[in-house]
Specification:
The complex is a heterodimer of chains A (about 120) and B (about 110). Chain A is mainly beta. Chain A is built from no helices and 11 strands. In chain A, the strands form 2 sheets. In chain A, strands 2, 4, 5, 6, 9, 10 and 11 form a 7-stranded mixed sheet that branches. Chain A has a 4-stranded antiparallel sheet with strand order 1-3-8-7, with no helix packed on it. Chains A and B meet through strand 4, strand 5, strand 9 and strand 10 of A and strand 5, strand 9 and strand 10 of B.
Chain lengths: ~120, ~110
């Protein structure tokens, strides 16, 4: 079993649908992240949950809604998305520590296509 | 906001050749991370550098950190087809209080047999 598991791996949805991406980590970490990767752009941090505190990128539209019920699970709820939201969504986890982020462990990603 | 610029954006080398990828930060580097990604997949951690002048090696990959220049380089010796992929540098982001990594756009490497 891999350390960070993302489901589904591929998702196609219409602009009026509501769907969710799921991430689960089996590493005992206490911080989880959502990143967005679009073609030819740097990875964009969307949300961080660290020690039950949420840090978010203020440029992320409200049609993306994160949920972190516990330190092992992270969701990204999607509703009324736009075609430009099509991208690879990567989940990561780490052991939060002072003095820096530390190594992030990434899942395989969820490839989202919005029609 | 902190930006990481990688060069070159893409690279094609013959198998057995050496190559270098650079990563330059617009702000002070507190920690620099190198990752490798195969197309459409997750990122695999390669190594982390924290101190100026630090150099780390793993198999045929060596990374160095020049704190004064706010720059890191990744060097691959005697490249192999297995080295092909996208190499990304990441840094502790000041914008998030160093609670997350900021990444460069990546360098796409192709190794021709």
């Amino acid at each position: 079993e891999t350390g960070v598991t993302q489901t589904p791996r591929h998702l196609v949805m219409g602009m009026t649908n509501k769907k969710s991406l799921k991430c689960e980590q089996h590493l005992g970490h206490n911080a989880m992240y959502w990143y967005k990767q679009s073609a030819k752009k740097p990875l964009e941090l969307m949300f961080v949950y660290s020690l039950e505190e949420r840090v978010e990128n203020n440029s992320v539209p409200s049609r993306f809604s994160p949920e972190c019920p516990n330190s092992s699970h992270l969701f990204l709820h999607l509703h009324t998305l736009q075609p430009e939201d099509s991208a690879l969504y990567l989940c990561a986890s780490s052991q939060d520590r002072t003095g820096g982020t530390g190594e992030l462990f990434f899942g395989e990603g969820s490839r989202l296509t919005v029609l | 906001s902190q930006e990481l610029e990688q060069s070159p954006q893409s690279l094609i080398v013959q198998e057995g050749k050496n190559l270098t990828i650079n990563c330059t930060s617009s702000k002070t580097l507190y920690g620099l991370y190198w990752y490798k990604q195969k197309y459409g997949e997750g990122l695999i951690f390669l190594m982390m550098l924290q101190k100026g002048g630090e150099e780390k090696s793993h198999e045929k990959i060596t990374a160095k950190l020049d704190e004064k220049k706010q720059q890191s380089s990744l060097h691959i010796t005697a490249s192999q087809p297995s080295h092909a992929g996208i190499y990304l540098c990441g840094a502790d982001g000041e914008d998030t209080g160093r609670r997350a990594l900021t990444f460069g756009s990546g360098t796409r490497l192709q190794v021709q047999p």
